[in-house]
Design a protein that fits this description.
Blueprint lengths: L4 H6 L6 E3 L2 E3 L2 H11 L2 H4 L4 H14 L11 H12 L2 H33 L19 E6 H12 L19 H10 L2 H19 L5 E8 L14 H5 L7 E5 L11 E7 L14 H8 L6 H4 L7 E6 L5 E4 L6 E5 L15 E6 L11 H15 L2 H10 L7 H9 L28 H9 L5 H4 L3 E4 L11 H13 L1 E2 L4 E2 L4 E5 L9 H10 L4 H17 L6 H5 L6 H7 L5
Parallel strand pairs: 5-14, 6-10, 6-11, 11-14
Antiparallel strand pairs: 1-2, 3-4, 4-7, 7-10, 8-9, 12-13
Helix pairs in contact: 2-6, 4-5, 5-8, 6-7, 6-9, 8-9, 13-18, 18-20
């Protein structure tokens, strides 16, 4: 066990220790946990104040006392459990839920051992074990929902060591800051964020889910990699002859409520989760509250670089909610009825991409347009295709010249003949390409998804980077459309999503989005066409030659001088 590289990378951040060939809690921790597991009659814990004292004692047993918790954390635990919860809820929590969580903590080392024993066999030849997912290293981690429950229980008890997390660019993971913010702000949204998490604990303690969740770091290589697209230059986008994908506009509804199988965009912070465990309560933070299993990724996923994205498949939703930001409210239980794939993941695919923040007029510069479109493309593209071809041509497969002939032999470009019929059935360790030959056959025999079905997954998104980050919603809409459509045919690596489903959330600047997208599609624009128009518009904005929004500038039906200028740039 101690020789495993994946375990060695994460062990300093877990709190457990290796003794012999097994993982264990340090012995001073075990008896206090056993007392808590037997209920309040044995532990004496019947209030938030006493709970925090027990947490402090556990941390002392783990030699974590020197790693100080947030100043008001003790007051926050007391406020929530002793004042904000009803008497009946508090009694149930301390009598039933807290003992069950302590039992889960006692089983945490054995859950980890089971995880690592199976990590090497889950997908043939692919590392899936829990580890620090270092920047610029694409890879995937599979965790059982039960193990995630134990990890989040460690967060609740503030048992994760925090030394060197900043140096590793890891986000906060213990819940002390969350409870501290509750006390310091006395804010209803903070109370309701915690209610979502408490509800999650109540649910898993009454019935532990048995599925899997995968966390994948996706990377667009900055240097040339065989059979894989590198970080695209502006010229690559301009020359693209790929048709734009189908575009749907939704004036109401929420991304997480969409019914199609699709990538659901998380308007992320570069540190995944953003302010989920702090004061934040906008799109990303709300998603982490209603799907709390996402929080587990904050343990081992360092911040994203410009050429990286994070994809999570399988997180279960546990809570309903209303409102947004300051009006956010927990609205009771949610039963997640999404289908499960053949390895036990719910068909919820969340892609975290972080937009640039506070760019103002700089967002129209070519270098920043390029950064944003490549960030979205990194999130949307099929990393499995890159790895499939790397594996196929690494050993006894065809040589590169043969691949080049196959590519050059493709004469016409249409969305139908760009389907992924040529995708080799190589076993690939990514969220959208984990199917080996035998797994595909077994899956299809059981009525599960085929590999071809994998590539029917569209994108559901909205005003990415347009709220507090200050992005131009018309520009961001176009960028996401381009990124979802693109194929870099010389390397057979693509996003090539069949559709993008866009939620406008009532933004006035997007009131003509239906008309604009329909006009563009009716004129059969390519990715290169729309990219060139976007660059031309942005250049005019920077020079002060137009103050119109992109869609008003672009739409030929308008008759202002600026619009007539735009008509002269319409691709023929």
């Amino acid at each position: 066990m101690e020789k495993r590289e994946d375990l060695r990378s994460i062990l300093p951040y877990l709190g457990v220790v290796v003794e012999g060939s097994s993982l264990q809690w340090p012995s001073p921790v075990i008896e206090p946990l056993k007392a808590i597991s037997r209920g309040p009659d044995h532990s004496g814990i019947q209030s938030g104040e006493l709970l925090f004292l027990a947490i402090s004692d556990l941390r002392h047993s783990l030699s974590l006392s020197s790693q100080r918790l947030s100043a008001s954390a003790s007051h926050g635990y007391a406020l929530f459990f002793d004042e904000l919860l009803s008497t009946a809820e508090s009694i149930k929590w301390f009598a039933e839920v807290l003992p069950a969580l302590a039992n889960l903590l006692l089983r945490f080392p054995s859950l980890l051992e089971f995880h690592y024993r199976n990590a090497d066999t889950l997908i043939d030849g692919v590392q899936t074990g829990l580890r620090i997912s270092n920047s610029q290293q694409s890879g995937i981690v599979f965790l059982s929902q039960e193990l995630i429950g134990a990890l989040l229980t460690c967060s609740f008890f503030c048992l994760f060591p925090t030394c060197n997390r900043d140096a590793k660019h890891l986000p906060m993971i213990n819940f002390d800051h969350l409870f501290s913010c509750l006390y310091e702000t006395n804010d209803e949204k903070m109370e309701n964020k915690i209610k979502c998490i408490i509800h999650y604990f109540e649910r898993i303690c009454s019935h532990m889910p048995t599925g899997l969740v995968s966390f994948e770091r996706k990377v667009l290589p900055l240097e040339d990699v065989a059979f894989c697209v590198t970080y695209p230059k502006a010229d690559s986008w301009s020359k693209s002859a790929t048709p734009l994908c189908h575009f749907e506009v939704h004036r109401s509804g929420l991304i997480e409520d969409q019914s199609k199988e699709a990538l659901e965009v998380d308007f992320a912070n570069s540190y995944i989760g953003g302010g989920a465990l702090g004061r934040g309560c906008v799109q990303e933070e709300i998603r982490f509250m209603i799907n709390p299993e996402l929080i587990a990724g904050m343990l081992f996923l360092p911040s994203m670089a410009d050429n990286e994205a994070i994809e999570v498949v399988g997180p279960e939703r546990f809570s309903n909610y209303t409102g947004y930001a300051s009006s956010f409210r927990f609205a009771g239980d949610y039963v997640d009825k999404r289908d499960v794939d053949f390895i036990g993941r719910r068909q919820t695919k969340i892609i975290a991409i972080d937009a640039l923040c506070g760019m103002r007029m700089r967002q129209y510069k070519l270098e920043y347009l390029l950064r944003e479109i490549n960030k979205a493309f990194c999130g949307f593209f099929y990393q499995s295709k890159c790895q499939q071809y790397q594996r196929l041509f690494k050993g006894d497969g065809p040589c590169g010249a043969q691949l080049d002939q196959r590519i050059q032999g493709s004469d016409s470009i249409s969305r139908s003949n760009l389907s992924l019929q040529e995708a080799p059935y190589a076993s690939v360790g990514t969220n959208e390409g984990i199917y080996g030959d035998e797994q595909i056959r077994n899956s299809e025999e059981k009525g599960g998804p085929s590999l071809e079905h994998q590539y029917d997954v569209g994108v559901v998104t909205g005003n990415w980077g347009c709220g507090a980050f200050g992005g131009d919603p018309e520009i961001k809409t176009a960028i996401q459309w381009l990124a979802a459509s693109q194929l870099f045919g010389d390397r057979l690596v693509e996003a090539l999503r069949p559709f993008i489903s866009y939620h406008t959330f009532g933004v006035e600047a997007l009131k003509t989005l239906d008309e604009v997208s329909e006009w563009i599609l009716s004129h059969k624009w390519t990715v290169g066409d729309l990219w060139d128009m976007l660059v031309e518009y942005s250049t005019q904005r920077l020079k002060g030659e137009t103050s119109l929004g992109f869609f008003t500038w672009l739409l030929p039906s308008q008759s202002t001088p600026d619009d007539k200028m735009a008509e002269s740039f319409v691709p023929k």
